[in-house]
Write a structure and sequence with these properties.
The chain has about 200 residues and is mainly beta. The protein contains 1 helix and 13 strands, in the order E-E-E-E-E-E-E-E-E-E-E-E-E-H.
Length: about 200
């Protein structure tokens, strides 16, 4: 584990109630702990309560569970995890996400079928004409209680043999909280799908 995390590395910390998700920088790495300086006050993060951690490494997105041994202001002493896993080599975990949704270009609604999503963007199918020059607004349902609204910017549009288009693009979130929510949602769904 010590070779995977290092001083000055950015890391996301997500407690059980992910509205208290936080991020920060690793300031020290020791054999049985690492020190984490959070960007924001550690509201909702309790000593000895397990949280999820996500960070980028050269091997892909590293994910592990651990807990704070000590909390002093924004500085936390985090226990070294017993085990870890790599979610995948790409920057954000991509999951299958098939839904019929509306995407909006100002006042115009476009009918789309999403194929997959990640915190970076999504792939979709549509019969409507989509412009690579425009940004679109979309609301993504993550659960019965939770939706995320964001902007979608097309990057690649391919014409399908059977008609219609396959479109890949990136998301622009309204807040870093929405982005962290999406990262956690995709990571959790990826683990659920692999454990089925």
């Amino acid at each position: 584990m010590r070779e995977l995390i290092s001083k000055d590395q950015r890391i996301i910390m997500v407690p059980h109630d992910f509205k208290f998700a936080n991020k920060g920088i690793i300031t020290e790495v020791a054999p049985d702990y690492f020190m984490l300086e959070l960007d924001y006050a550690p509201d909702g993060i309790l000593k000895s309560n397990y949280c999820e951690f996500y960070t980028q490494t050269k091997y892909g997105t590293l994910y592990f569970d651990s807990y704070a041994k000590e909390i002093n202001g924004n500085t936390l002493k985090i226990a070294s995890p017993a085990k870890h896993k790599f979610l995948q080599r790409r920057q954000y975990t991509r999951i299958k996400y098939i839904l019929d949704l509306d995407m909006f270009d100002g006042g115009n609604a476009l009918k789309i079928t999403t194929l997959d999503i990640s915190a970076g963007g999504m792939k979709l199918k549509t019969n409507d004409n989509i412009s690579i020059e425009k940004d679109y607004t979309i609301t993504l349902p993550l659960s019965e209680e939770q939706n995320i609204e964001c902007k979608f910017s097309p990057i690649r549009i391919e014409k399908n043999n059977e008609g219609g288009y396959t479109v890949s693009g990136r998301f622009e979130f309204n807040s870093s909280h929405d982005k962290m929510t999406m990262i956690q949602y995709c990571a959790k769904r990826d683990i659920e799908i692999k454990n089925k």
